[in-house]
Amino acid sequence: MIAPADLIRALHLAASVLPAGLYLFAVLIARPAARASPDGGDGADELRRWSIQALRWCAAVAFVSGALWLGIEAMSMSGEPLGKALAPSVVGAVLGTTLFGRLWLLRGLLLAALAACVVRSIARQKSATSDAIGLTLSLGFAVTLAWAGHAAGVEGREGAALLAAQIAHVLATAGWLGALPALAMLLALARTRPGALGFAAAATRRFSPLGMTWVAVLVGSGIVNSWVLVGTIPALVGTAYGRLLLIKLALVLAMLGLAALNRLWLTPDLDRHPRRAVRALAATISLETALGMGVLVIVGALSASTPGAHEQPLWPFRFTLSWEPVIFEGQLDPPFAIALAVAAAGLVAAAIAGAAFRRWAIAGVGLVAGLFAADRIIDAMQVPAYPTSFMTSPVPFTADAVAHGAALYQETCLVCHGATGRGDGPAAAAFPPGEATVVGHLLGHSQGELFWQIGHGIPGTPMPAFEAETTPDQRWTLIQFLRAQAQATQIEAMSWHVSPTAGVPAPDFAFQIDGGGLETLADERGQAAVLLVLYSRPGSNARLEQLAAAASTLPGLRIVAVPLEPGDAEGDHPDPAGMLARPAPKIAAAYALYGWRIGPDGPQPARHTEFLIDRSGTLRARWHLSEGGGWADVARLKTEVETLAREPFRPAELAHHVHG
């Protein structure tokens, strides 16, 4: 899991944050502690000499590991082996034309200036000016790491939030982890030099509250990072990135445990038993530093891994948690609500009794009660899960996918589930009553669950497994057709009037109007509502002429007319409004699903249907020419378009469930 390149990145990360930590320790902790200690800071000169020596090593390691990291990136970008990737032409191209290269040039300048500052400090021994310059340069050198990670590739507000969190995370890492080696060295010095005991104790007392501040910043920024780069529990436990993050979290929690031990027990013991406390603190802080180095190794691997939010998670458990089993008629099951209250009260009581009052017996009782109630809660919320339960379709929800899925459905599913998924196929009798109805099954399952069931069948039912007969992409494509089929059933009652709540995501589609390039429905997101017209000739002729004449009076509306059959576009048909698209059988086939009319004899295909799609890409209203009324009066269509124009734009989100 950890590659040599990850170790190189980890070395560079350590050599980047340690200088900032050493300068922060010197300025914020060591210097004030020396003034406050009764022995006048005995040991401060030794600490300064050690720090300067550590800075020299950091500069050397940062230079070598940075060059190697640059070589790794050159290999990745050029596709060449390391020897060829390090050629001046390749490295020059990386440095001059990529964000990473320009960042590395800046970091090289900062490192050179920092090294010069360290040399000046060696020559002049003590210099407040050199320390101030060194602190500024080292912080700059550390902070620029934020642009070397995933934050540089995320745009918009999310990217800005991630970049700010990364900067805070790097600074807090420098303040806490970067300063730990200096504190460990000072404590080790105090063990062998009694005169430095007071200085070490004073520095430890100053470090403790500052360390807790850095920890708080680390936790807060880490939450933001995880939210953007992982986002969900399935991605946390079901992707390589998420599992690495869990290892990092375990190491950080161990560090926090040691920090809490130092803060709550060992640091207060400095007044009563200074030698014993210093000895114990030296051991725990050394261990804390070692764990921190492990964290940096994991961070080195994370920086080269695909974020969990961009991977398909494989759920590792046989169950997941859902509210559905514990909600009845819109309310929580009373025993479940009681268990929730007991769990919350027990855990809160345990935290307060232990942390604030040190009443360990009460804390133990609260903890046991809270954990027992939590176990009951988990047991009540369990529902079966599959490895693919939290996957979403990599096949986009487009008219092409729906049309291709329809062909697969005809081959594999129609015999049982029927043409419209209502469970009326020739072989439906093999299922218990209602079990062959596709829509009822779809609405309660995620895309990933359907993918697994199509591939592996459903035990205890006549549903067979199709994994051997279909590819993964074919199964995902079939799911997109089933999604459209379910949506078509959901909007059976949809009319020409826009409802504030009704609507389903419209499949994206590509179209071309004579004289123009290829366009898509997605191009209109945030720009204009779309009236998609499926027409047939000669029955639609008068309506098309009416729409063409009224197009200029419908601001905020893009009209796209698609023939149901290629022959409907043949002949000389003037298009002054620029709305007649070239024949697109996939659009017609996909949207024909949404155009069925439910009559006395069951579902019937319509020969002319118009769909009103809002700026967010949601199908909001539908009108059949054969119905009459409605949009036959273009003024009514204009009213509906104006209603949509007043609604806020909602950015598209990837739906996890088939119907959403």
Describe this structure in words.
It is a single chain. This protein has helices spanning 4-36, 44-78, 82-85, 88-97, 99-124, 128-143, 156-176, 180-192, 197-229, 233-238, 240-266, 274-302, 334-355, 360-381, 399-412, 414-417, 438-442, 447-456, 472-490, 541-550, 585-592, 634-645; strands at residues 319-321, 327-328, 331-332, 382-384, 504-505, 510-512, 518-520, 529-535, 557-563, 597-599, 602-604, 609-613, 618-624. The chain has 660 residues and is α+β, with helices and mostly antiparallel strands. It has four domains: 4-310; 322-384; 399-490, Cytochrome Bc1 Complex, Chain D, domain 2, CATH 1.10.760.10; 504-645, 3-Layer(aba) Sandwich (Glutaredoxin), CATH 3.40.30. The strands form five sheets. The protein has a five-stranded mixed sheet. A two-stranded antiparallel ribbon has the order 1-4. Helix 1 runs antiparallel to helix 2 (44-78). The model is unreliable at 653-660 (pLDDT under 50).
Relative helix content: 55-70%
Sheet having the most strands? 5 strands, mixed
In total, the number of strands is 13
Q: Which consecutive residue ranges, at least 5 long each, have pLDDT under 50?
A: 653-660
- Which outline best applies? elongated
Strand content: 5-15%
Ends distance: 37 Å
| Spatial order of the strands forming the largest sheet | 5-13-12-8-9
- The chain-level structural class is alpha+beta
Domain module count: 4
- Total number of helices: 22
What does the radius of gyration come to?
33 Å
Quaternary state reads single chain
Mean pLDDT comes to: 87
